[in-house]
Amino acid sequence: MKETRSIMIVGVGGQGTLLASRILGGAVIRLGYDVKVSEVHGMSQRGGSVVTYVRYGDRVYSPIIDRGGADVILAFELLEAYRALPWLKPGGKILVNRQKMDPMPVITGAMQYPERIEEKLSAVADVTAIDALALAEEAGSIKAVNVVLIGLMAKQTDIPKEVWLDTIRTTVPPKFLDVNRKAFELGYAKA
Questions:
Q1: What mean pLDDT value characterizes the chain?
Q2: Structurally, how many domains does the chain consist of?
Q3: Among candidates 181, 4, 16, 182, which has minimal Cα distance to 97?
Q4: Average pLDDT for residues 70-92, to the nearest whole number?
Q5: Residues 6+ away with beta carbon under 8 Å from 160
Q6: What does the buried/exposed string (b/e) look like for 53-79 if buried means 16 or more CB atoms within 10 Å of the residue's CB?
Q7: 124: buried, middle or exposed (CB in 10 Å: 19+, 13-18, 0-12)?
Q8: Contact present, 12 and 101 (Cβ < 8 Å)
Q9: What is the average pLDDT across 119-130?
Q10: Could you tell me the residue range of the domain that residue 144 belongs to?
Q11: 57-66 long-range contacts, Cβ below 8 Å, gap at least 24?
């Protein structure tokens, strides 16, 4: 019996968190697992927080991840990783893009972007932080940050690489396939 795994994907609207959740869900479905996905949108159309829960195992009854229940937080931005920290279970992992995107209170001057977030995260959790934006650019599109991060996570799972690549092939539009394959490989190499 496969223990249920809980992955929390967090980012900002427009970063591709939903595509990342479809790739993750598609990969585990190919292995025969039961998968539940739940999307929680903030002001996603306006650059607000976006959270997606993905849970998989032999039998999953709910997509919702309780506080302290996430095995992995896959974060597309540092502040979003910091906000999601209460959902990480003891011994869980945070995989995070080092990119900083100012939320509206920072843009308007009402608040300052918190300092030393990566350091604060590393003090309490197992953190792998990469510059996924630079790797996406290297792959050919800054929009491929999501697939760079999927590659980073994929290397740390027991899901065969070929399953991930096949899922990407069937999930992304054909005209973006080469960029996304390269983005995946670059992220996979960083794990």
A1: 92
A2: 1
A3: 16
A4: 96
A5: none
A6: bbbbbeebeebebeeebbbbbbbbbbb
A7: exposed
A8: yes
A9: 96
A10: 5-190
A11: 57/2, 57/3, 57/4, 57/5, 57/33, 58/1, 58/2, 58/4, 58/33, 58/34, 59/4, 59/34, 60/4, 60/34, 60/35, 60/36, 61/36, 62/36, 63/36, 63/37, 63/38, 64/38, 65/6, 65/8
Place of tokens 């496969």: 2
- pLDDT of 154 over the 80 cut: yes
Give per-residue pLDDT as tens, 103-124. 777 888 888 888 999 999 999 9
DSSP state of 158: S
Single-letter code of the amino acid located at 13: G
Amino acid at 168: I
Judged against a pLDDT cut of 70, whether residue 1 lies above it is answered with no
Residue 128, amino acid: T
Tell me if residue 178 falls in helix, strand or coil.
Answer: helix
- 12 burial type by CB count under 10 A (0-12 exposed, 13-18 middle, 19+ buried): buried
One-letter amino acid for residue 165 of the chain? L
- What is the chain's length? 191
User: What pLDDT digit, counting tens, does each position of 165-186 carry?
Assistant: 999 999 999 999 999 999 999 9
151 membership: H or E segment, kind and range: helix 145-154
pLDDT of residue 111: 87
* Residues whose CB falls within 8 Å of the CB of residue 118, separated by 6 or more in sequence, listed in order: 78, 96, 98, 127, 129
CATH number at residue 72: 3.40.920.10
